[in-house]
């Protein structure tokens, strides 16, 4: 969370009794997932241990959902950069999950699929081009049913850049700050050495259990592989 505090204008603090809407970080056995944007009342982010707690990027990814962002591969303009191999996606992830709840608000409409292309009204790149290095991008074999690619980059060299969970890309920081109106905080961010995707989707540690944050809303459901 310190990265959010240092390089964005988003801050998280312990929940107070007067806070009606809040984020609760839990460690259930259902993987790594978050709602997108603000929902009313208790809003859970699940970080299963240890799978979601070994690289810092997974908590950053789930918190970035909570503050209002979809996956990078959901962007409306994604077809110019990637194609989706639907036949290789695990059936449960092609159609999301039966228990998934959908919440609709003024900014987004129901978007239940981790691989769907969103409409122009559902996504906003905030002046950042499509970012293969984003912590919000899936790896090329994410949720594969057969080990074959589920996301195929138009430029093959980009395949090794997708799915990193080492930290924010500079584009991630730029999008957050442009969305929340504090672009002056972006220049201080130095992008870490971003490697390829981990063996499974993993994250970081030392996360407070109850924090305040988030705006907007839409969906819940398993987000990261584990």
Structure description:
The active site is at residue 62. The protein is largely without helices or strands and 226 residues long. The protein has four helices and six strands. It has helices at 2-7, 57-66, 91-94, 170-180, and strands at 22-26, 32-34, 42-47, 82-84, 151-153, 210-211. The strands form two sheets. The protein has a four-stranded mixed beta sheet with strand order 2-3-1-6, with helices on one face.
List the helices and strands and how they pair.
Layout: H1 2-7, E1 22-26, E2 32-34, E3 42-47, H2 57-66, E4 82-84, H3 91-94, E5 151-153, H4 170-180, E6 210-211
Parallel strand pairs: 1-3
Antiparallel strand pairs: 1-6, 2-3, 4-5
CATH class: Alpha Beta
- Please give the domain count: 1
Computed CA radius of gyration, to the nearest angstrom: 16 Å
Q: Which parts are unreliable, with pLDDT below 50 for 5 consecutive residues or more?
A: 93-112, 199-222
Q: Give the helix proportion (percent range).
A: 10-25%
| CATH homologous superfamily designation | Collagenase (Catalytic Domain)
| Biggest beta sheet summary | 4 strands, mixed
On the 0 to 100 scale, the average pLDDT is: 79
- Beginning-to-end CA distance, first to last residue: 22 Å
Q: What pattern of helices and strands is seen along the backbone? A: HEEEHEHEHE
Strand content: 5-15%
How many separate helices?
4
Structural class: little secondary structure
Shape: globular
Q: Kindly state the number of beta strands.
A: 6
Second CATH tier, the architecture = 3-Layer(aba) Sandwich
**CATH fold name:** Collagenase (Catalytic Domain)
Assembly type of the chains comes to single chain
């Amino acid at each position: 969370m310190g990265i959010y505090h240092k390089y964005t204008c988003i801050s998280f603090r312990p929940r107070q009794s007067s806070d009606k809407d809040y984020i609760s970080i839990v460690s259930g056995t259902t993987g790594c997932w978050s709602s997108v944007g603000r929902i009313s009342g208790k809003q859970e982010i699940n970080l299963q241990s240890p799978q979601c707690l070994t690289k810092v990027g997974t908590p950053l990814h789930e918190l970035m959902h909570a503050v209002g962002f979809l996956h990078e591969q959901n962007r409306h303009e994604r077809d110019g950069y990637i194609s989706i191999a639907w036949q290789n996606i695990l059936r449960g992830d092609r159609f999301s999950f039966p228990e998934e709840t959908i919440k609709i608000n003024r900014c987004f409409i129901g978007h239940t699929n981790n691989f769907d292309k969103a409409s122009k009204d559902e996504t906003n790149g905030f002046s950042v081009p499509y970012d293969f290095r984003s912590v919000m991008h899936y790896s090329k074999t994410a949720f594969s049913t057969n080990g074959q690619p589920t996301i195929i980059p138009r430029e093959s060299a980009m395949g090794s850049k997708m799915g990193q969970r080492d930290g924010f890309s500079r584009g991630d920081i730029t999008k957050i700050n442009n969305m929340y109106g504090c672009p002056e905080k972006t220049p201080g961010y130095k992008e870490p050495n971003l490697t390829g995707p981990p063996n499974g989707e993993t994250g970081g540690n030392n996360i407070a259990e109850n924090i305040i944050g988030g705006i907007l809303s839409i969906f819940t459901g398993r987000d990261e592989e584990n």
